[in-house]
Amino acid sequence: MIKTSHLYILLVLLLPLAGCARVLQADNQYIYDTSIDFSKFRTFNWYSAEVPKPRAGAGPQFNLLLDQRVREAIASELVKQGLRPEVENPDLIVAYDLAVDTSQAPTDYTFPAGFGYGYSYWFGYRFRYITNGLAGYQPIQALPLGTLVIDIIDPDTNRLIWRGYSEAGINPTSQDMERINLAVADIMSQFPPSPINRAR
Prior knowledge:
Elements: H1 4-24, E1 27-32, E2 43-46, H2 64-80, E3 84-85, E4 92-98, E5 147-154, E6 159-167, H3 177-188, H4 195-199
C-alpha cells in the first residue's frame, strides 16, 4: 500500500509533466503529395521569402528572435531525420508561418490564387510558392491563432508538397522555447510520410 507521503511526492513530480502534456495534445494536421517518394530527399535549405519592412505606428512587427528559434528547432528535427543543410542545390526548401491576429493589418498582401503567403504586416513572410493541387490546403489566415505551420516545397517546381501544422497556441511576442520545440517536434514527427501512409 502506498503511503500518503509517497503519493504526495509522486504527484509533485508529475505536475510539471502535466503542463508538457497539454502542449503535446495540440491538434496536429498533415497534408502531402502522395505521389512523391519522400525517402529520396537528403538535403534542405530555407525558402527565400520576403520580410516586410517595419511600419511606423504599426505596433509589434517581425520577431527576429522568434524566427531564429523556430528555424533552429525545425533544422534540428530535419537533421535528426538524416537531412543536412545545403545552400547551393537542396532537394527540399522549407518555410514556416505562424497564425496571428491581422484584424488591423492593411490588406496589401494580395497574391494570385494558388500561391501561399505569410503575413505582410505583423509577423513575417510573404511566400510565393504554388499550393494548387494539394488536397486539404488552407491559407494561414484560416487557421486558429497560435497555429504553427511548416511547409516543404519542391525547389524544381516551386510547389508545396508537404504541410504539417499544430494548433499549439504559440504567442508570437514570447520566446517560449519549450512550447516551440514541442510543437515543432510534434509536427516533424510525421515527416517524411512513411510508405504505409503514402499507400492509403
